[in-house]
Every structure is written in structure tokens, then in C-alpha cells.
Amino acid sequence: MPEDALATHVAYQDDRQSLEGGMDSGIAALLAAAPLGLLTSDPYGYVVSCNPRTAEMLGHELPDLTGRSIFDLVPPDSELDLREYTKLVKNSADGASTELALLKADGSTLAALLHSHRIHDSGGTYVGIRSLIQDVTADRRRERLLHNATQALAEKNAIMALKNAEIERVTKSRSEFISSVSHELRTPLHAVIGYAELLGRGLYGD
């Protein structure tokens, strides 16, 4: 961390109430027990506070997260996305939302929806970002299973359609063959039958 950033970060740690934007203690207690993760970072991207649910989702002890860079909480291939997202939040009066992969303590990842907005102190100075974090890993897993099942069904239906088309083609070819053979046989048979009738009547030959 740069020296000036470190000094600023320490100052924010010493003045948590300012960073939390004067949050009412009752609201803070409610958010601490919320089923969603809550994480507050300073302007340099270091974690100032988070609730127990955040630590639980990421597999960390709660004190271990304080002071860590938020960029340590995402896999390397998501770091650029997080940087772009924090810029977007910082420059948006209405906040922003995104979905990111977060890195857990055991090295695995979880899919998370982030809903973030910038926070200011009583003097209107930008002091950081507060994010609500929703673990949607199970939802994404169900979506993948549903997608795979739908794809497998579509492939099965496509194979059945090909088989049905082949059956129809064979049936049509057989019908056409039988019709053609019947026609080819019918003409000489008529002649043979007529000749036999003449012979039977003694009208042809001796």
C-alpha cells in the first residue's frame, strides 16, 4: 500500500463511524445479522468492515478480512472486472450491480451478486464503497443443470427426428417400390389371364 494510502487507511480505521456514514447503531446491528454479506471498503480498496455472513461465505474468520485488499477476494481473471466495477460505483450517484466470482479461503470460488453504492462522510467527502453480497452459486449450479438437461433433451429430440425422417423415407421408398412392381406385374398378368381364358374356351389354338 502506498505511504499516503496507508496513512489514510489508518485514519479511516480510527474513525469507523465516519466511514460508515453515520449509520444508526440499530441498522448496523440488523445488517450485521443479515443473511446477505455486507462489506465496506475505503477509497483505496481495503476492507474496513464486513458482517459475519461475508466471512462465512468466503470461509474466513471475520478479523482476517479487515485490512485486506478487495482485489485479494477475487480470482486473478476477475480483478480487472472488479476494478472497472469499483470505478463505475464511485462515479455513479445511484450505485451499481454486477455478478463476480469471489475467491474463498480454500481457493474455490463462488458466484456473487454485488449491489454497491459510494458512501460519504458528514462533510460530503467520498470515503468508500459499501456492497451487499448475495451468494448465487447454488442458483447458477441449478441453471447449469437445467441448461444441460434442456440441451440433452434437445439433442435427443433431434436424434428422434432424424430417425423418424429415416423411417418415413424408408416407408415411402418401400411403398413406391411395391407400387412400381405391382404396376409392372399387372400388365403381363392381364395378358396371361386373358390368354388362359381363351384357351379355356377353346377359342385359341387347337
The portion of residues assigned to helices is: 40-55%
Strand order of the largest sheet: 2-1-5-4-3
User: Span from first to last CA?
Assistant: 125 Å
Shape: rod-shaped
- What structural class do helix, strand and pairing data support? alpha+beta
Share of residues in strands = 15-25%
Describe the model:
54% of the residues lie in helices and 19% in strands. The chain has a 5-stranded antiparallel β-sheet with strand order 2-1-5-4-3, sandwiched between helices. The protein has helices at residues 3-14, 16-19, 25-32, 52-58, 62-65, 79-90, 137-201, and strands at 37-41, 47-50, 96-103, 109-120, 126-135. Residues 1-22 have low confidence and may be disordered. The chain has 7 helices and 5 strands. By secondary structure, it is of the alpha+beta class.
Describe the SSE topology.
Blueprint: H1 3-14, H2 16-19, H3 25-32, E1 37-41, E2 47-50, H4 52-58, H5 62-65, H6 79-90, E3 96-103, E4 109-120, E5 126-135, H7 137-201
